[in-house]
Amino acid sequence: MRRNTGIGGELALCSEKPENQYTEIQDFHKSFLRDHFHFVASPIDPPAEVGPPIGGIQYFVAYPKYTFTMGSLDLLATTGKVVSEGPFASTEITKLDDSSYAITTPWLKERCPHHLAQQPPMRATVTVCPNLDVFNWKVFKHAHDALWAIIESTIMPYGLYIHNQGLYIQPNDLCIDYDAAENFEERSETSFFLTSDPDEMLLFLGFPANPFWEEQFQTVHEMYTYVADCPMFCSQPDYPKWPAMNPHQEEAAKKLDKLLFQPSALNHFLMVFKPYCLARGYYIKPRTSPSRVFEHAVNFFHMHAEVYLRSTRISIEEQRHYIWIYMINNFEQLEEPKAKIEEIPSTDYRRRCYRILLVNALKEIILQGETKYGIKLWKGIRDASGNYHMDVVKDYIIKHHKRIGSTAFAFHNDWFLEVRKMARKRDRKIARQRKSAMAAGHYW
After folding, report:
1. pLDDT classification of 180: cutoffs 50, 70, 90
2. How many CB atoms lie within 10 A of CB 65?
3. Is residue 26 domain-shared with residue 70, that is, in the same domain?
4. Domain final residue, candidates 101, 125, 142
5. What is the average pLDDT score of the chain?
6. Are 189 and 246 in contact (CB under 8 A)?
7. Are residues 104 and 159 in the same domain?
8. CA atoms within 13 A on the CB side of 203
9. Is residue 306 predicted with pLDDT exceeding 80?
10. In what order do the strands lie in the sheet with 192-195?
């Protein structure tokens, strides 16, 4: 083992590998996989100073050349062997799940120093992608290993995050109360999908694509500087402050937290490089803000109509929530704001029933458009976009709540009498059946 000193000795120990064999084994793996798949690629390696990728070597493949019932890799996994002869005849393949395999290749002991010959064999993961879009995305997302973790830690405070092979943005001014949201979809509905195209994503974030996404970074400092040149990077601590997060953002943040407490390039970037820049006055002045990033996203991806419709819908939902909680449930205080709502005794069934029926009827009429009570909703209560005029809603409740309450209570009484009538009819039927059974000598 050796200490990785290329970035200040802050990273953990990483396995030393025979460089010539490392490249040779990778070439063997790719050659073997190309015999079975039309598309084969491995992400760009991280800088040599970092060592091997954190998750090990990865290969992504798509469109198998053989279409028989059992996949070609499945057949090889049953025997465990990749090739029967040659220097890498000891290579083994095992199936991990429906779409991934593990390839293990021992180092050639006769061609490397004794202390390296004792290293664990080189292990690689092969992931079968269902289509070219997934294939290209995975190769792009895993390039340079820890680079994307560093980029995500930089862009997430601005509401940007990666999910399901795409870039999303969660604008702060459209955040809803996630704790009060009733379901997962409601908690995620304020996010906007931006793009799943790698080139478009890099252009939007302000990262030059060439040559950094075609070849390996020469040094870790070069990789860090590449991220720092992004307009969203700022060496000031806690700028910008992290916004309220939806579930997808929380999931991404947890993954970053795990890396942060491990010896990784992300840990070194945040704990060493960022304070280094702050101490020397680099990147101190913020170059953008969450609101400007969102405005840039709207213009860059032509989202004006979608943002208007989504913000209008969210505004309407917030209005409905306010009307229900603060106007309908507290209708007594609309006319007299300082009036104290007295608790109705549990023994006063009539008053308690009247208030419950009135509140539910107001909700049905104003929020659900119910017409069974015969009291029409004023036409001017909502505008053309569907937003409520809160003053009109208030006036409507003040003017009609007594009439609505009386009508709702009358509906309830009619329903209660109908239920009693049906219950008595049922009881008479049961009594007749019992009498007939007893007359026939049967026990009821």
Report:
1. very low
2. 10
3. yes
4. 142
5. 80
6. no
7. no
8. 9
9. yes
10. 160-162, 167-169, 192-195
Q: Is the domain of 331 the same as that of 354? A: yes
Q: Which residues contact 235 (CB under 8 A, 6 or more apart)?
A: 274, 275, 277, 278, 282, 283, 284
List Cβ neighbours of 338 (8 Å cut-off, separation of 6 or more). none
Q: Is residue 443 part of a domain?
A: no
Q: Helix (H, G, I), strand (E, B), or coil: what is residue 55?
A: coil
Q: How confident is the model at residue 428 (pLDDT cuts 50, 70, 90)?
A: confident
Same domain, yes or no, for 98 and 184? no
Note whether 188 and 136 are same-domain residues: no
At 373 the three-state DSSP class reads coil
Task: Give residue 99's domain range.
Answer: 19-142
Pairing of strands 160-162, 37-41: unpaired
Give residue-wise pLDDT tens across range 80-110: 566 656 677 778 888 888 888 888 887 776 6
User: Within 35-112, where are the H helices?
Assistant: 72-79
Total domains, the chain: 3
For residue 416, the surrounding DSSP H or E stretch is: helix 390-439
Place of tokens 């004006």: 304
Q: Is 442 domain-assigned?
A: no
What is the helix (H) or strand (E) element at residue 331, kind and residue range? none
Segment 31-60, tens digit of pLDDT: 888 888 889 998 888 887 666 665 578 899
Give, rounded to a whole angstrom, the gap between the first and last alpha carbons of the chain.
87
Same domain, 253 and 170: yes
3 within some domain: no
> What does the chain come to in residues?
444
Which of 248-262, 299-313, 336-350 has the highest mean predicted lDDT (pLDDT)? 299-313
Instruction: Evaluate whether residue 395 is within a structural domain.
Output: yes
Instruction: Write the DSSP string, 189-241.
Output: TT-EEEE--HHHHHHHHT---TTTTTS--SSHHHHHHHHHTSTT---STT-SP
DSSP 345: P
